[in-house]
Amino acid sequence: MDTRFAMFDNEITAKFAKRFANASLVIQQSPLPKSTQELVSLRASQINGCGWCIDMHTKEAAAAGETPVRLNLVAAWRESTVFTEAEQAALALAEEGTRLADAHQGVSDQTWAQVRKHYDEDQIAALVCLVALINAANRLAVIVHQRGGSYEPGMFAAAVN
Q1: Contact call for residues 114 and 92 (beta carbons, < 8 A)
Q2: Which domains does the chain have, with CATH numbers?
Q3: Which of 150, 161, 143, 139 is nearest to 45 (CA)?
Q4: 135 and 97 in contact (C-beta within 8 Å)?
Q5: Are 145 and 3 in contact (CB under 8 A)?
Q6: Sequence-distant (≥ 6) Cβ neighbours of residue 77 within 8 angstroms
Q7: How do the residues of the chain divide into helix, strand and coil, expressed in percent and rounded to 5?
Q8: From which residue to which does the signal peptide run (predicted)?
Q9: d(CA 74, CA 8)
Q10: Dihedral of alpha carbons 3, 150, 161, 20, sign
Q11: Of 24, 49, 48, nearest to 38 (Cα)?
Q12: Phi, psi torsion values for 138, nearest 5 degrees
């Protein structure tokens, strides 16, 4: 499967990507732990089948010190012992916020209560925005068949601002 469209070579999508990256800075600079940000992004990307984003977030998490065991178990986080209760709440929110069409109510009250138990208002705001942002990123990459494998940690840092 070849990439359908060179998003980074087109003037319109390059402008959009820069603004998209700047929006992600708000989340990156938030009090939501970096490890939680990467785990949530990875889980949503797995659900959406986005190879580009799985590649990116696995490598960024590893570069930030995340362990291979935890990265390998994100897809089966409910069946593992390596995630905190707070991380489990964030992963549940990521799944339910990503699978909106699979559940008529979207995010369950139980999941929301767990998120409220473990995160403050600013962290919740960042978490909700992150779930929306990673789902948008996944859709962009999947639509154009942006394939995973070539991402290098930090490669988009210069594109921001």
Answers
A1: yes
A2: 33-151 (1.20.1290.10)
A3: 139
A4: yes
A5: yes
A6: 43, 83, 87, 88, 91
A7: 70, 0, 30
A8: none
A9: 29
A10: positive
A11: 24
A12: -60, -45
The C-alpha atoms of residue 40 and residue 43 are separated, in whole angstroms, by: 5
Residue type for position 94: A
Q: Which helix (H) or strand (E) holds 132?
A: helix 121-143
Given this model, what pLDDT does residue 159 score? 56
Q: How confident is the model at residue 1 (pLDDT cuts 50, 70, 90)?
A: low
d(CA 53, CA 138): 7
Amino acid at 57: H
Q: Give per-residue pLDDT as tens, 8-39.
A: 788 898 888 888 888 999 999 999 999 999 99
- Residues 36/87, Cβ–Cβ less than 8 Å: yes
The Cβ of residue 125 has, within 10 Å, a number of other Cβ atoms equal to 16
How many H helices and E strands in the chain? 7, 0
- What share of the chain in percent tops pLDDT 70? 95
